[in-house]
Amino acid sequence: MSAISASQDSRPPFVSVAQLTSARRKESLPPLRLTRRGKIVLIGIPLVLLAALLLSLAGFLTSPAKASDSVSDLSVTPTMTVTVQPGQSLWAIAGTTAPQRDARDVIADIVQLNNLTGGGVVPGQQLFVPTR
């Protein structure tokens, strides 16, 4: 045998640099641990985004209906202002301002126009009352 062939046989098998670095990385890296800040980033931010999405979806689904397609289709309810006198109730106001209509319908309109939560009124309170 020649000197060249003897030296070729004694060499170790060929190993690439990428294989060596990946083997060293596997040996040297500790297990992955998340810090408190990392947990907040990985869990908190998606939860905040999900909550924002749910709130906007809920707002979209509970939004009031559109009253009309155009402004010309809208009409203003003709009203007059009435000051509540002592001893006067919504029933009495409805009977005096619109005697031709059912008092229950007039009371419902008064409650809606004035955003009243209950049926009681206070003397001196000014109410919008529909005239038709």
Order of helix and strand elements from N to C terminus: HHHEHHE
**Helical residue percent band:** 40-55%
CATH class descriptor name of the domain at 77-130:
Alpha Beta
The CATH topology name of the domain at 77-130 reads Membrane-bound Lytic Murein Transglycosylase D, Chain A
Coarse morphology: rod-shaped
Low-confidence stretches: none
Say how many strands there are.
2
The profile of the biggest β sheet is:
2 strands, antiparallel
Q: Summarize model confidence as the mean pLDDT.
A: 82
Order of strands across the widest beta sheet?
A: 1-2
Question: Could you tell me the strand content as a percent range?
Answer: 5-15%
Please state the structural category.
Answer: mainly alpha
Notes on the protein architecture:
There is one protein chain. This protein has 132 residues and is mainly alpha-helical. Among the domains are: 20-55, no CATH class; 77-130, LysM domain (Membrane-bound Lytic Murein Transglycosylase D, Chain A). It is 49% helix and 8% strand. The protein contains 5 helices and 2 strands. It has helices at 3-9, 17-28, 36-61, 90-97, 103-114, and strands at residues 79-83, 126-130. The protein has a two-stranded antiparallel sheet.
Outline of the structure:
With 132 residues, the protein is mainly alpha-helical.
Give me some keywords for this one:
single chain, 132 residues, mainly alpha, Membrane-bound Lytic Murein Transglycosylase D, Chain A, two-stranded antiparallel ribbon, 5 helices, 8% strand
